[in-house]
Amino acid sequence: MAVKIQINQGSIEIENDVIATIVGGAATDNYGVVGMASQTPVRDGVNQILNGDNFSRGVIVRQAENGVIVDVYIIVGYGMKISEISKSVQARVKNDLNVMLGIVAQEVNVTVQGVRMLED
């Protein structure tokens, strides 16, 4: 399923994998985020951290009336303040989607799937 945007010259379709890659990159660039997690950890492996090719397994994108709703699954570093990391991820994802794709994220729901020790 793709997100469809109507403009004067026609329509633009942006595939969910493209959005998931941008969302995953925005989420993992935040301090305290170890990596992306799968939305189905039992099936995909509980301890698996997703790399850039697999960000779509850790992001759900749904189209809403005036934008998109994004669910992001992350793994955070041990000892970090989870609420602050989640707020930072929400803000960064909303900003990156707006700047790079011109898409308004109505909601960015962050689910912390695990905690890992930060590697130095």
Short description:
With 120 residues, the chain is of the alpha+beta class. The protein has helices at residues 16-28, 41-44, 82-101, and strands at residues 2-7, 10-15, 33-36, 59-64, 67-77, 105-116.
The averaged pLDDT comes out at 84
Helix content: 25-40%
Number of helical segments with 4 or more residues: 3
DSSP, total strands: 6
The domain count comes to 1
**Helix and strand string, N-terminal first?**
EEHEHEEHE
Categorize the overall geometry. elongated
Low-confidence stretches: none
Assigned CATH architecture: 2-Layer Sandwich
Strand content: 35-45%
User: Rg to the nearest angstrom?
Assistant: 15 Å
Query: Which CATH C-level class is it?
Result: Alpha Beta
Secondary structural class: alpha+beta
Largest sheet: 4 strands, mixed
CATH topology: Alpha-Beta Plaits
Instruction: Report the CATH superfamily.
Output: Cation efflux protein, cytoplasmic domain
Q: Please give the alpha-carbon distance between the first and last residues.
A: 39 Å
Oligomer: single chain
